[in-house]
Amino acid sequence: MKMMSTEAWVLHRSEQGAGYPATLVRENFEFPDIDENEVLARPLFGCWEGNMGHAIQRSPIDICAERGEEKVVIGNSGVVQVTRCGSAVTTVREGDICLIFSNGMPDEFGYPKRIFAFDAPGTMGVLARTIKLDQRNVIRIPENTRFKLEQWAAFSLRYITAWANWRVAWGCWQLQMPEVPPSEVYVWAWGGGTAYAQILLAKEMGCPVVMLASTPERIAHLKGLGIDAVDRSAFGEKTFEEDLLAAVRERTGGRGVSIFIDHIGAHYRSTIKALGRQGVITTSGWKRAMTYPTVRAAECIARHVHVFTHYARYQEGLDAVAFAEERGWVPSLDGKVYTFDEIPTLAEQYVAGKLESYFPIFSVNAREA
Fold first, then answer.
1. What is the number of alpha carbons within 13 Å of residue 113 lying toward its C-beta?
2. Predicted model pTM
C-alpha cells in the first residue's frame, strides 16, 4: 500500500487514559493513499470546534483509544480544495472548493453513528496540510458564491448541525401546535455557535427569538443582528433560576418558551421550567451534563417534547448549503484568523474561555489558494 506524508498538528494516544489533557505535536503524519471512493485535498481554512477541545482534553474519552489508533489528526469544520479524486468519485471533481461534511460513519438510513475526524476510525481532519476524505465527507461550495471561504469553514459543522436539529425540533412543535403562527412561537437559546445558527433560522421564519449571552461583545453582536439578547451574567448566583424565569415571563407574556435550544446542558432544570405547555427542548451536544434528571409524569402532563439529534444526513447537508446561499444564512465573522503556526495558542485560548468569537477561524493553506 502506497503511503503519503504531510505536515500536521497531531494528537497522540495517552498512556494514562481519558481525562489527562494532551498537547498537539507538529510533525509529519503518514497515511495511506486514497482509494477509489476517496479524494485528496488541501485544507484552506478551518473553524475551531468544541469537539476539538474535547479531544485535546481527552474528556469524556481518549479518541485515539476509542479509534484504536496511536495518533490522529483532528479538525472537522473547514473548507478544502480537492486535488485528486479516486476512480469511483462522483460527488466532486479535481479543483473543487468544498466544505467538510462530518458524518464519519452513517447508519443504514444515513444518520451518523460516529463523527469524521473525531471518533470515526481512519478519518483525518483539517489540522494537516494535506488530507484524504471519503467523497461523502465533502460538499461542493456553490459556484461563484457570495460568501467568503472563512464563512463556509464556520458553516460546515455547526450550521449543518443546526439545520438538522431545527428541522426535527420545528417538526415536533408543528405536530402538536399547527394552528399557532410563527409570530407566537417563542424561541430561546443558550449561547454557542450552533444555537446562534438556529436562532437565525427561527428569526428567518418570523419567530420572536432570544439568546442568552454573558459578554458585552456577544450581546452587542446579537443586538446588531436584531436578536434580543439577555445578559445571563446579570442573574444572581443564588437567584439564577428565578431571574431566568422572570425574563421568560416578561418576554413571552407568561406563556413560556415554545422551543428552547440547549446544546450545553448546564442549566437543564431551569430550561425545563422555562418551557411553556407543549414546549420543545432540543439538543445536539454533549458539552456539559451527560445525564438529564427528568420528572416523567410532569413532562407528560405538560406535553413537553425532548429532541436529541447528532449532526446530519448527507442530503440535509446539501439542503443546508443551498438554503444558505439563497437566503444568506451564513455566519457573521469577527476577530482574527489564526495561522497554522498559532494552532496551539488557539487551542489554549479556547480551553481557557478567552475567545469572544462564536466561530474561531484558522488558516492552513489559504494563502496558497
1. 7
2. 0.95
